[in-house]
Amino acid sequence: MQSIEANGYQIFFNENGYEKINDFISEKKYSSIFIIVDEHTNEYCLSKFLPNLATEIPIEIIEIEAGEEIKTITTCVEIWSILSDLGADRKSVLINLGGGVITDIGGFIASTFKRGIDFINVPTTLLGMVDASIGGKNGVDLGNLKNQIGVINVPQMLLIDSDFLETLSQRELRSGLAEMLKHGLIYDKKYWEQFLDLSQIDFADFDTLIYRSIEIKNEIVKQDPTENGIRKALNFGHTLGHAIESHFLQSATPLLHGEAIAIGMILESYISKEKGLLSNEEFYQIKYIISTIYEPHDFSDEDIVSIQNLLIHDKKNEYGKVQFALINGIGKIIINQSVENELIINSFKDYKS
């Protein structure tokens, strides 16, 4: 597959990517290589990645626990200390081998250690490949508030190897699929329509769907790297979705990111319909397709109140007002939309109906 030119770095695919990463490391003459993994990628992915890394430069592996709850400043302090103890310097490079949590926290750690060292993202989950690792957003959570602390700083390069998807559960794959569905809904109606009948998808050629999803996000980010305008389109489903994810993060039934975003897309599609931006037919198509992929989630009245309260911490808020990105017909988006509390409550009522 042809590489994709992003803002200040390139995205490479599969076998070609390993050739490029080796050439790059050789050219940069790094003093040392540090690879951040979690317990899962250490077990299932590192053994595939390391044999493809052709270098004599010293390599150190740093393993952290898996899960969103580890994406904290405390974990950063621990890894900064490890890097320091192991002699990392300004000519070291950090390779983030894992899902969205690893690329988020790894990019933040690299961007801040010694005022910034190079990093490379190698996402191993579908969510990481089509969303989290692209665009330069790096950061950590603040308590149960997602991504409140962070920076925008791009990697030196990005390697997409779809073979890593074989290590994932069906639940993890569905989580990543939510972002692919979103890309179609906000940007490319024909791409969305490819998911209307999952039985017709040739998963042997799933790489082409991944490639197009990455293209869409990259095309949006290149227009607006710092999220002052059109990049806010990528937040469709995320205003309520992030609040839902945060609410259940510490519960006995936490949701994966994509599961929360899938619910958020149904809710925000309802809001789009009620504001006259989406036809009834389009809304029911969206609700039906997403509902066939993801199991419904129960919300008590107390859950909904808590989720509404969490909206005030959303990063897109301006002047104390919650800002939504809504779809203006499938394949189009409208940003900076205010939504009344009553309409939010009604969206949950419709979801539960």
Describe this structure in words.
It is an enzyme of class 4 (lyase). Residues 62-174 form the 3-dehydroquinate synthase N-terminal domain. Its cofactor is NAD(+); Co(2+). InterPro entries: Dehydroquinate_synthase, DHQ_synth_AroB, DHQ_synth_fam, DHQS/DOIS_N, DHQS_C. Keywords: Cobalt, Lyase, Metal-binding, NAD, Nucleotide-binding, Zinc. With 353 residues, the chain is of the alpha/beta class. The chain has two domains: 4-167, Rossmann fold, CATH 3.40.50; 170-352, Up-down Bundle (Dehydroquinate synthase-like, alpha domain), CATH 1.20.1090. It is built from 14 helices and eleven strands. The chain has a seven-stranded mixed sheet with strand order 1-2-9-6-5-3-4. β5, α5 and β6 form a beta-alpha-beta unit. The chain starts with a strand and ends with a helix. The mean pLDDT is 95.
Care to count the β-strands? 11
What series of H and E elements makes up the topology? EEHEHHEHEHEHEEEHHHHHHHEEH
For the termini, the CA-CA separation is 44 Å
Just name the CATH architecture of the largest domain: Up-down Bundle
Q: For this structure, what is the CATH homologous superfamily of the largest domain?
A: Dehydroquinate synthase-like - alpha domain
Put simply, the count of helices is 14
Low-confidence stretches: none
Mean pLDDT: 95
The biggest beta sheet is recorded as:
7 strands, mixed
User: Which structural class best describes the helix and strand composition?
Assistant: alpha/beta
The main sheet orders its strands as 1-2-9-6-5-3-4
> Can you tell me the number of structural domains?
2
The CATH topology of the largest domain is given as Dehydroquinate synthase-like, alpha domain
* Principal-axes shape call: globular
Determine Rg (CA atoms, Å): 20 Å
- Fraction of residues in helices? 40-55%
Class of the largest domain, according to the CATH hierarchy?
A: Mainly Alpha
Strand content: 15-25%
Cofactor: NAD(+); Co(2+)
Keywords: Cobalt, Lyase, Metal-binding, NAD, Nucleotide-binding, Zinc
Function: Catalyzes the conversion of 3-deoxy-D-arabino-heptulosonate 7-phosphate (DAHP) to dehydroquinate (DHQ).
Domain 3-dehydroquinate synthase N-terminal: 62-174
